[in-house]
Amino acid sequence: MSLYTPGDDTGSFIIDADMSYIRGEPLRETGHGSQDLDLEITVGEGQLTLRHTIAINSSSIELDFPLHSLAPHSRPYSVTLKATRPNCDRAYTATTQVYHLPKRADGGSVTKVDSLYGGLLVQNKSDDSSPWSPLLPYSFYVSWDGWLKKSLSNVQKFKDQGYNIIHIVPNAGLANQAFNFTELNMFLDKCDEVGLWVMYDMRWTYQNLTSVRDQVNMLKTRKSMLLWYTGDEPDGQGDPLNATRVTYDLIKSLDPWHPVSLCLNCFNFYYEEYSSGADIILSDVYPIAVNTSWSEVYGTPCNTTYGCCGCDDCEGTLDDISVRLDRFVEYQTWIGTGPKSIWGVPMAFGNESFWSRYPTAAEEVTMTMLSVNHNAKGIVMWDYPTTTELERVTSQLSRVLASEEVVRFLLGAPTVALQATGPSKMDVASWRLGTQMVVSILSLQTPAWLSNVSVTLPEGARAVHKVLWGSGDWRLIEGQLVKTGGRGLETDLVIVEFDADQ
What pTM was estimated for this model as a whole? Predict the structure, then answer.
């Protein structure tokens, strides 16, 4: 976890010792060819020392440690790992931090980030004895100075649609480039009352450290506060390369209880520098009804070095979403600082600038589930209000995707891609816990298809237990999910039952 709190007896470190041909130090052979690494982990100034042995080229190894030896305080403990091989004088090192925070005395919330699977954990009450629950955010960006500001009753209406958080976009037209804080606090009171989590946006002010300090200190004790949001496309705006990190360090010094997020727009424009300023990275790829070779706004061509077409280095297909998310995960492995939680920002707007129309309902669901299939642990669409069609389908999907039944899989197990065969272009992912597996099956082609498609499952699959979303026509035949024909851009979400011994 990104932090530990009262009630936690143990924590765990995640150790990756996989081979890399991109970064790291040479792996020297030893006399007897041992494939083990001897680890020594030191926490703080000698408060805790752990020793362990793991295999070279292993990953996601969890090593538990006791928390009682680390006195709770608001500053993180430094952690140093030293790895050596038998009969070899080379030492490999890595560093990180761990928070063991004291009990909150101000009634504020706490949000944990699961460093293994990337999800969020929250407590539904301020009482720190209540259980921690996984939360998969599913919502929209909502402009403060539009629909939201008209009536406090809109807060309840928004939650009643099934959205579990709200991302409020500040008003750049105000002198403080943020909010009317008298009105905002009334809004936050309502969010506290109805149990709607808040994603707080400082896009216009995040480089003004005085303003950031004031806003964080004002709002950090809110029980509806979920996380902070700083840079909105800082790479596309060309913000100073250290801007996001400087603000991140300030926020963490003021509020270690909540994660920090930002949204990157570019395929790769100083990803390492900008992403260093956040725990959670959002990706806003908008590939619907866009011309990716000619800029309709600027009247110029778009290529790898010149021009802006609204979707950086895109082909104008749904694959742009999965490619970008996969690349962000890949960049993190290149950087070597460990994985970060990735969220998707599906397009829910249109008829403006680069985009000639709104997405259809099928496109909206596909963009969302394609993000989830490629390891997004949160969805925040741009933006609300949207069309009646999109409002209806996203409200329906929220009751499935953000449900406890589904979230425990998506945030409690690794995302594993599955192979599909057949004429339709498919994207399939799975999450397994015990004897059950959630399988998400997407058809990425627009025309309907008539022939058979099959998805190969691991051994031991014995029945389709439940259809969560879609047609329900998938059958289990000889260890494969099989379906004959389907709609273009069809999305199916099913639970498969496995034998207990598999």
Answer: 0.96
